[in-house]
Design goal:
By secondary structure, the protein is an alpha/beta fold. The protein is built from 14 helices and 13 strands. The chain has a 3-stranded parallel sheet.
Length: 328
């Protein structure tokens, strides 16, 4: 009788399919080679700038994360609050510009994620002495890996598969396709993000994640700027060369609404002389609390959803060259 019961249970297990734990150990490729993760991690620490969003999107509750900017509770912006709270995640926070190794050690991690932070080889070695480390995705320069590759890398490291990541990516593919179908006028228009850093203006090259996001919506990165990108992907534009900002639509993420960046820029005679000013082809990405600016900077599976809800209509209104339709 007992043998028949055990046989029946074994058959049911086969019908149910393999458990996630059976996908471990798993080898994850990244910038410094390959890291083998022996079993499903239970205490994940993120030392990169935005990886907590990826973990929450994948249903993983980290025990420690880094504060980037914003000073939000648990270093989490509002677009990720629902996912964090659903997991009951209340991670410890690492502050500061570098990596606090004592802090990392105190979290007792069994996996360290650093997919959006440029680890020096020495840093990688020191962290690896604490726990397995997954660095930035293989084959990409620092900060330039598409979020999809970052998500797959983190999913593989934490679950042993990329099934959840692939599902999320497919959902976004459908959303991008829907936006492009709804706003076909954006297809092929030149445009990118411009930031004011007194006295100059800054754009980031075509490898920047925020630049790639606009390309995913159908825009084309302005070629006159692409050829000016420096080694770190930065493009600095002095006021006397502001004509370089002439494009079909310019996005100005406003980081600090209290400083009235829009008013400062719009009052500049050199800006007033541009077609993007006369034709209302600037999008002032300002929701009065810096959330849109932060979402454009974070570029995660959670912040992108927020941007897709608010930005396409603004782009379309600005790109038609009619100031009367300019979205506020």
């Amino acid at each position: 009788m007992l043998n028949r019961i055990l046989s029946s249970l074994a058959a049911l297990a086969l019908l149910a399919g393999p458990a996630v734990a059976q996908d471990f150990p798993v080898a994850v490729e990244h910038h410094y080679g390959s890291t083998t993760i022996p079993s499903e991690p239970q205490r994940v620490v993120s030392v990169g700038l935005h990886e907590q969003d990826f973990l929450y999107a994948l249903g993983v509750s980290p025990v420690g994360v880094r504060e980037w900017f914003g000073d939000k509770p648990f270093a989490t912006w509002s677009w990720a609050d629902d996912e964090r709270e659903a997991l009951g995640a209340e991670p410890a926070i690492m502050d500061g510009d570098g990596i606090n190794y004592e802090w990392v050690l105190a979290q007792d991690p069994d996996l360290i994620i650093s997919t959006y932070w440029w680890l020096e080889e020495e840093d990688y070695a020191r962290l690896s002495a604490i726990a397995p480390v997954v660095a930035s995705p293989a084959g990409f320069d620092a900060w330039s890996a598409p979020w999809q590759e970052e998500l797959r890398t983190i999913d593989l490291a934490t679950s042993g598969t990329t099934a959840k990541a692939d599902e999320i990516i497919a959902g976004f593919d459908a959303r991008y396709a829907a936006v492009r179908a709804e706003y076909p006028e954006l297809e092929g228009m030149t445009g990118t993000n411009i930031y004011y850093e007194e006295p100059n203006f800054t754009a980031w090259g075509p490898n920047d994640l925020a630049s790639k996001f606009l390309v995913d919506l159908g825009l084309v990165f302005p070629p006159q700027l692409a050829e000016l990108a420096e080694a770190d992907n930065r493009i600095t534009i002095s006021p006397e060369n502001m004509s370089l900002l002439e494009m079909d639509v310019a996005v100005w993420p406003i980081g600090d609404p209290a400083n009235s960046e829009q008013s400062i820029i719009e009052a500049m005679p050199v800006y007033q002389s541009l077609d993007i000013a006369a034709e209302g082809r600037s999008v002032w990405l300002d929701d009065d609390n810096g959330l849109a600016y932060a979402a454009m900077s974070w570029q995660t599976p959670l912040s992108l959803g927020y941007l897709l809800d608010i930005l396409p209509a603004q782009l379309a209104a600005a790109a038609d060259g009619d100031p009367a339709t300019r979205a506020e």
